Predict the structure.
Amino acid sequence: MTRKPRPIRERESRPAEPAPLARSGGRSPRQPRLLKIERGVLPQAEGSALVHMGRTRVLCAATVEERIPNWMRGQGRGWVTAEYGMLPRATGQRTPRTSQTGGRAQEIQRLIGRSLRAVTDLTAFGERTVILDCDVLEADGGTRTAAINGALVALHDAFVTLSNRGHLTGPPFRDAVAAISVGIVAGVPCLDLDYAEDSQANVDMNVVMTGAGRFVELQGTGETATFDMAELRALLSLARSGIRRVLGYQRRLLAGSGLLPS
């Protein structure tokens, strides 16, 4: 008895799984770049810090001046402000110094100033101004977030200087503040983008948060695609986890002074 051949069934085609996203250093989408902050790198400044986030390096210097803007006189409050710039060869091609005072630099330095004032008690150090100069030595993405993270350390050490001079009337910080970038790269939400990822991101976002988990600023843009609420939640969740790590690093670095709330 001969058996009838079985009919050949076509195999169901399955959609190909997306290839894993290749990130610099073999990082996973949830893994930030290496963070390092060095204190006191400019002995003549009232406070200073050199922050490394991956290959991005930003030098932050705090200067205390015995003056305030005219519109603040007589109010018994001080002021915290920032200036931001990028060295000509911080990038792959030289950036002329004259371009460092344009709209982008203005927008970033206002962001840095707002972020620091959000956690500072301006009545604690009299009618003085603290200026944070943030100069990018090497740019590989996330320069504004690195500047905020380093500026907090420089500001802290400026307050240590004021405390040693007897110029603090109370705790100068209400909270800590930190920032990080997130984005959707090749359809994958990623934390702490470097330049290569940022330049090809479908969506990118800078997030600034306090230690209490309150937002100071969200800067999100659909560069080459729109994004929905689920993707926004995923990005904010990533940012929150990354900022908690930065805050933890800052607190360990500055432990002992008693100026930064735990």
User: Anything to note?
Assistant: The chain has one domain: 30-254. The beta strands are 35-39, 47-53, 56-65, 79-86, 129-138, 177-185, 188-191, 203-210, 215-222. The two ends are 85 Å apart (CA to CA). The domain at 30-254 is CATH 3.30.230.70 (Ribosomal Protein S5; domain 2).
